[in-house]
Amino acid sequence: MSTPPFLTLPACASAGRLATARGEFAVLRGEPSGAVRGTALLVPGFTGSKEDFIALLEPLAAAGFRTVALDQRGQYETGGPADRDAYALPELGRDLAAVTEALAPAGPLHLLAHSFGGFVAREAMLSAPTGPLPWASLTLLSTGPGPIDPAEAARTKMLLDALDGLDLETIWQLMRQLDGPAAPQHEPEVADFLHRRWLANVPQALQAMGERLLGEPDRTAELAATALPKLAISGATDYAWPVAEQAATAERLGAVYRMVEGADHSPNAEQPTETAALLAEFWSSLS
């Protein structure tokens, strides 16, 4: 899971809820103090939340970009029903389309999706009605074309098996035991947040999303056919999809590809200054 480096919102940001035709979504908003060059919609991945992007809000606002980071259906403060069908990829894609529609009056809208969020963004784009897409660009951040790396797939399969019979608190404690002494050490505030966020997940959402990470087909050719500027960013290493696979996918997409040194699966949290600079450079080149 992504670990935010801090939790205190910068002065440019606020927390709230966004009303859409498919219900309300918990969001963090970042607002520039001067002219707005565009809006960025930030979509988290599996077990993630809007806080994964907290360190991007201030540098992107300084570059003139309004940001809206959300919890998807079933994640943290958005919540959702105890029905696995509600978290099927087409349903999440429709959610993203509804969020996009709610933000449409804000001007050019750049879509950024992290990890599993990339599958949701792809679904929303490939399911969009015929005609111009409502997004100005697509950025895939640490996202692969299909199923995750076999080693990570084995861990995800263990989680899915556990979700069939155990509650989230028990699973959390088991995950901490499996991590052992090598587990990352976090500030108490961040550690408490990670625990609370995990417990706030809807278990059926975790099951549905995890299954897609294990079995989502490669639809790169279809996405490449969409007439939209694309950027792909990876860390220098990645446990979910090999970096070489991400770079090759970017080439197949016709996307600009950038690597963030010193980052793994979450450049947005691990190297936010460098990641924000790459995003601002790309988005600015389109206006």
UniProtKB/TrEMBL annotation:
Gene Ontology molecular function terms on file: hydrolase activity
GO cellular component terms, A-Z: membrane
Coiled coil regions in record: none
Keyword line: Hydrolase
Gene3D superfamilies: alpha/beta hydrolase
Residues covered by the AB hydrolase-1 domain: 41-277
Listed Pfam families: Abhydrolase_6
PANTHER family: HYDROLASE, PUTATIVE (AFU_ORTHOLOGUE AFUA_2G14860)-RELATED, MONOACYLGLYCEROL LIPASE
Name this protein carries in UniProt: Alpha/beta hydrolase
Organism of this sequence: Kitasatospora acidiphila
